[in-house]
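Structure ticket #2291
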Amino acid sequence: MARICVGLIILGAIGVGAWLYARDWAPARDKFPTQGVSVTADNGAIDWATLAAQGADFAYMRASKGAAFRDPSFARNWREARAAGLRYGATLDFSLCARATDQATRFITTVPRDNAALPPVIRLAIDPACTVSPGRDAVLSELNTLVNLVESHAGKPVVLNLSREFDERYDISSGINRTLWLERNFLPPDPDARKWVMWTASDMRHIDGVEGPVRWDVVAP
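Resolution: structure written out below.
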């Protein structure tokens, strides 16, 4: 029994150590010089000056989700990230449960025209709250409509932030010719598998200036 208890203590200590390492981890700057964060209202009030001092070069902030949701922190985050000297951009969380035209309207009426902003991002991830399962052709058609409307507003090409699960289901990366931002915790995507310009390296990093974990993103070298 004593040996079992000691073993459990050791395993627990290893688990805590791994968690502490993971929560502070970021890719090496010599390999990925440009790094930043993705945030939403779930991150609470952000101290943008502190975040910039901790090494964030840019910030993407959620503007909208689907057709009905406007992130309540977007306007403040947009204004304060710019004031802190970070490069800044807006994201739209795509929903399979809403029409592309309605989602574009929500995004366009939330995000101001700003030539200094980074390219807009459409995030493609499976939402458990949306239970519809349209075919690939229908999804690609809606996405093409959404991409065209958002690009017309922003005046620059969108970036597709693509989760592994969404891409496996709909093969988006071969269906729409746009720059890719891939989500792969801790291990970078295979550079030979597809062209990508950004990578979400961790969705559990803790950093001064933000409450709770943030999505830590890096730009391909």
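Closing remark: Residues 87 and 116 are 8 Å apart (CA to CA).
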